[in-house]
Model the fold of this input.
Amino acid sequence: MSGIYARQTRPAGRIALIAAAAALVSATALLNAPTAQAAPPTPISASTARTYLGQLTVAAEGSTSGYSRDLFPHWITQSGSCDTRETVLKRDGTNVVQNSSCQATSGSWYSPYDGATWTAASDVDIDHMIPLAEAWTSGASSWSTAQRQTFANDLSQPQLIAVTDNVNQSKSDRDPAEWMPPSASYHCMYARMWVDVKHHYNLRVDSAEKIKLQSVLNGC
Done:
């Protein structure tokens, strides 16, 4: 009986030591756990997107005269040595490691546009959901440079997303009537993001663009 009793009544100090050790193991496991992939800000729902789409001004695209990407200062410093591109790479990637200059040296990136996964940051572009030239012809030509800079580096809206570089290049400056992501399962999300950003910045849509967006959103 005495042996059993001794095992059942450990000294308080020993119990505290065991608890501390267990907590340390748990904390270490948490630190070593895979980093969950983040994502751009969640866009409005499909039903809200349908409502917002109906509120957008419909007009023919404006002229590209005078347009230059330099009029949308982008990849500005966000924090320390991290610019917008590196910030989005960190946000959208998994287990991303950055060097002292904030450059991503390793990690993996899933591109929802085409379902591909990449392990080199050089294979990933940061797509402007509303392309800069599209914004210019939809109303941004009248903005100040400061407004265009905010738009081109906006982390608070679903405007920036890490995707496969050549897929982003195939999109170029085209709107949804002219281009949609190769992955059909992402079309609903893409339309929601597109309308969300255009509504937030009060940008216009042309008639073909609106028809395509309505079609996609009605199927969500």
In short: Strands lie at 77-79, 82-83, 93-98, 104-111, 116-118, 124-128, 160-164. Residues 1-37 have pLDDT under 50 and may be disordered. Residues 12-32 form the longest helix (21 residues). Residues 180 and 187 are 7 Å apart (CA to CA).
